[in-house]
Amino acid sequence: MSDNAKQPVRRALRILFVLQGHSFEGLRLKQVADAVRATPSTVLRDLEVLLDEGIVERIPGRDEYWRLSPRLVQIAVAHQEETRRLQQRLEEFNQRYTRQPS
Predict the structure, then answer these.
(1) Sign of the CA dihedral 81, 83, 89, 95?
(2) Which single residue of 34, 36, 50, 87 could bond 56 by disulfide (Cβ 3.0 to 4.6 Å)?
């Protein structure tokens, strides 16, 4: 993949990083564009793709503000739950193989 083809993906990831920590109030399009050093029209196109995918959302009643959607938190929670289950399995395995025979 050429560097030019990678730019939209990198910019989308930078947008996500910029929006982190602004889930309540959100950020205006211009703030996001300035932070990722891209034009507002380019960032708007990126945000609309992320919106279509359920990754970001406009704040109801404040359409010019963008924030991360709950979907990203749901992904993080699912990862945490999977990690907890795997940790539990490892602990059970460890107990099984380290206990002394009766």
Answers:
(1) negative
(2) 50
Query: Distance (Å, rounded) from C-alpha 89 to C-alpha 55?
Result: 31
| CATH tag, 1-68 | 1.10.10.10
- Render pLDDT for 26-49 as a digit per residue (tens, 0 to 9): 999 999 999 999 999 999 999 999
**Domain-by-domain residue ranges, the chain?**
1-68, 70-102
Tokens encoding 18: 């910029």
- Residue type present at position 4: N
What size, in residues, is the chain? Answer: 102
Query: Which positions ≥6 away from 65 have C-beta within 8 Å?
Result: 25, 26, 27, 28, 58, 59
Token pair belonging to 32: 């996001």
Phi, psi of 89 (to 5 degrees): -65, -40
Predicted model pTM: 0.77
The single-letter DSSP state of residue 73 is: H
Write down the H helix ranges in 1-102.
Answer: 3-19, 29-36, 40-52, 70-98
Encoding tokens for residue 70? 């709950």
